[in-house]
What does this fold into?
Amino acid sequence: MSVEEFRGITVDSEDGERWLLIADTHVGLEVELGKKGVRIPSQSARIAQLVLDFAERAGATSLAILGDVKHEIASIVESAREVREFLDRISGKFNKVVLVKGNHDGNLDLILSSNAKPNVYLIDSRGFMIRSRDGKNLLLLHGNSKPRVEDFMNADVIIMGHTHPAILIQDVTGYVMRAPVIVKVRVDKSVFGKNMYNTEVGATGTMNIIVLPTFNPLTVGMDVFEIFPKDLVEVETILHYARTWEILSNIEVYLTDMTYLGTMDILARIREEISEGGYDVSWL
It folds into this structure.
């Protein structure tokens, strides 16, 4: 597996663990596709192998999946079997496997209880905290639910999934492809907190929100221009409270190999110039 194929990040915690952080594995997606007439072999083993390959390469000792571990919202027998197979393959390779519940993870607790593993932990969608080796408090959640106020107050960085960010890339021949991306949003913590909790929470300074792409290889994601310049109330994302459409210059976009593409305001300008028939490089 090449680095370019990986859709996650690693973080060293102060207790000596190296955490592999991914989101939105959507195990069992092929079950839903099969109902629609799209016949795809089971992908559980492939997704598990992608996780294990990168963990070995990165030296990761623990794993956190930040929501939407499974795809079927109301779990059925077939998707439950896929989830159990996936967890069977990965759980023995890590000291800890933490699963944060996402909006697709209904009945995940029942699936886990039928195949309990001592090192697999299920956390509600408000997430959990780890402290990085460099002393930062990282709040890991799915992104569909508000975090606990005390966690938000203590957090330096929020790492989330849920929105599946991707970007459209066009080459000189006109070919267009969509690539998953990692997005960093810098926000005023006071404004963010007041918007989210509808009251002053006493937060100060700035904080970063890291948005991870979907990990499932059958999915690419949603164009960043359909996420960050808009108020996605219907998506139920905490990014709504960050009012990202007002701070495009504070939003950085990276390919999954960490190639820096630019801030959203510059990318928006480039897209506008392309739509007008070409690039104007005089401002570079």
